[in-house]
Specification:
This protein is of the alpha+beta class. The chain has three helices and seven strands.
């Protein structure tokens, strides 16, 4: 798994950067880098039909995912919707899961973090 420190990881300077950074960090096996893309009390709607809340719980889910050594490809971003320091982002899924949506919040330093993440819709 990745060994970079938070000080050396790229931050999302736009909400759309979060999806790109997520793909890169999954492919690098960097669980800590993935967790850093979320606010401390973020909600991850995964596994489908469940809510995973907070860094510790999100880390546990992502560790299980990375254990399978997945390879993700970048997906086509759909237009972002902004409301002040909040942004709704989405991508057109390459794997046919039906949709990926995230809510991100601008941080005091101008970077963006996910606060709600639905990586796939339950079937």
């Amino acid at each position: 798994m990745g060994t970079k420190t938070g000080a050396t990881r790229e931050k999302a300077t736009s909400p759309e950067d979060l999806a790109r950074l997520f793909v890169r960090r999954v492919n690098d096996g960097d669980v800590e880098g993935l967790v850093e893309l979320y606010e401390d009390d973020a909600v991850l709607a995964f596994p489908p039909g469940h809510e995973t809340v907070g860094h510790a719980a999100i880390r546990a889910v992502l560790e299980k995912m990375l254990a399978a050594k997945p390879r993700f490809a970048a997906e086509e971003p759909l237009p972002t919707v902004f409301h002040g320091d909040l942004a709704l982002t989405s991508t057109r899924p390459a794997d046919g899961t039906g949709g990926r949506v995230q809510v991100a919040r601008r941080q005091p330093d101008g970077s963006w973090l996910r606060i709600i993440d639905r990586p796939e819709l339950p079937r």
